[in-house]
Write a structure and sequence with these properties.
The chain has 12 helices and 4 strands; from the N terminus they run ααβααβαααααααβαβ. The chain is mainly alpha-helical and 237 residues long.
Length: 237
Amino acid sequence: MSDKPFDIRQLDGLDYDRAEPILEDYQDTLIALFAKSPEGQEYLQTHSEMGFWIAQLIYYGYGYEGFTLPRMTKNDVEIVIEELFPRKVSLLSPEEGDDAIPELLAFWQFLKREFKLRNATAILKYLREIEPEFRDIMNDSSKFGMAKSFFAIGQQAGFDMTTDKGLQQFQQFYNANVDPQIAAENSQSLGFSGELDALASGGGTAGSTGAKAAKGKQKKGGNIASESRKRNRTKKK
C-alpha cells in the first residue's frame, strides 16, 4: 500500500464511467486501512472477518444512488440499509446478516475519527437504532427484488443456488412447471438468463431489477452474502 494519504473524496463528482475503474481499489484500500485501525482491531476481537458489508455499502450507495462516503447523510444510509440491501443481497440463512450493523458501526466510528466526516454522528445514531430490526428487514420477503425472490424460491425448493449447476437446474424446473409463456416473459423481463451467468461467475443473485439504466457498465445483480464475502473480507490474524 502506498504511503500517500488515502483520498476518501476521490469518487466525489465523478460519474460512474469515470469511477468504475477505481471503485474496487477504493473499497479494498479503505477496508485495509480500517482493518489496521483501532476500531478495526477492536472489531476483529469479536468477529472472525470483516469487509463484506463495508464493500456493499460503498458499492450499492455509489453504484445505484451516487452516494459517496464523505457526502452520505443519514437518509442516504437509510436508503442503502432499508431498501437496497433487502432488495439485492441474498442470505443463505437469516443470521448471515447479523454482523452487518456491528461492522458498519465500527467502520463509521473509524471514518468519524480518521476523516472527520460531518455526518458520521447522525449515521452512527441511525445504525444503533436500526440494529434490532435489521434481521427482520433483510428477511422480509415483501422487500425482495424480483430476482432475489426467484433466488429465494429456488433455495426453498432445495436447489443449490450458489452454483451454476443448481441455478440452471432450478431455471429448468421453473420453466417446466410454470406456464411456458409466463416463464419466458419473466425470464426476459427479469434478465434471469444473463444474471444466472453473472451469479455463477461472480457471486451475484439472479437479477438486477432497479439498477439505473444509465449506468450500463455497472455490475448487475445483487450478492449472495456467503459467496461475495469470500472476496471482500479481512480475516482475524
